[in-house]
Design a protein that fits this description.
InterPro entries: C56_PfpI-like, Class_I_gatase-like, DJ-1/PfpI. By secondary structure, this protein is of the alpha/beta class. The chain has six helices and eleven strands. 34% of the residues lie in helices and 23% in strands.
């Protein structure tokens, strides 16, 4: 079993959290939510899904988890404004631990300054930001970079995204 940290703030894209969470749990993994404060309820922007945050960012260390999930929506933009979340995500990139990001999720990774030379995909509005961060952008439903970074563009890509994140964790087990 792999323990997957999921960083989440209000206005996350509902399906980009719920669908990967279901796929990961069905594969026997544990998905834990990390936000600003334990017990806080954050609401998704599209379907109004309420999620109670398991741990506040000050209550965890990146070493406590095996992988990182960054759903999209407005959440990654909120999180990247906080140095604690940037440092948390940077740990996974620097240590080549599995990172799963979809839609606007790479916005948090842009702020870690770890995307230079990396292959990635994401939603169209952040393509220029990804390129400016030094990433090589690919307009495909899912891209797996260096057997570590799995990215997708939109909720339409969730079947491919979920397939690849589960497959990658099987290889890391």
């Amino acid at each position: 079993m792999v323990k997957v940290a999921t960083v989440l703030a209000k206005d996350f894209e509902d399906s980009e959290f719920t669908s990967p969470k279901e796929a990961l749990e069905a594969a026997g993994h544990e998905v834990v939510t990390i936000g600003f404060k334990a017990g806080e309820v954050v609401t998704g922007k599209t379907e109004g899904t309420d999620v109670t945050i398991d741990y506040g960012i000050d209550d965890v260390k990146p070493e406590d988890f095996d992988a990182l999930l960054i759903p999209g929506g407005y959440s990654p933009d909120i999180l990247r404004g906080d140095d604690r979340f940037v440092a948390f995500a940077k740990h996974y990139m620097d240590d080549m631990k599995p990172v799963f990001t979809i839609c606007h999720g790479p916005q948090l990774l842009i702020n870690t300054e770890t995307l230079s030379g990396r292959d990635i995909t994401g939603v169209k509005p952040i393509v220029i930001d990804l390129k400016n961060a030094g990433a090589k952008f690919h307009d495909v439903e899912v891209f797996v970079c260096q057997n570590q970074l799995v990215s997708s563009r939109t909720p339409d890509d969730l079947p491919a995204f979920n397939r690849e994140i589960v497959k990658l964790l099987e290889q890391h087990a």
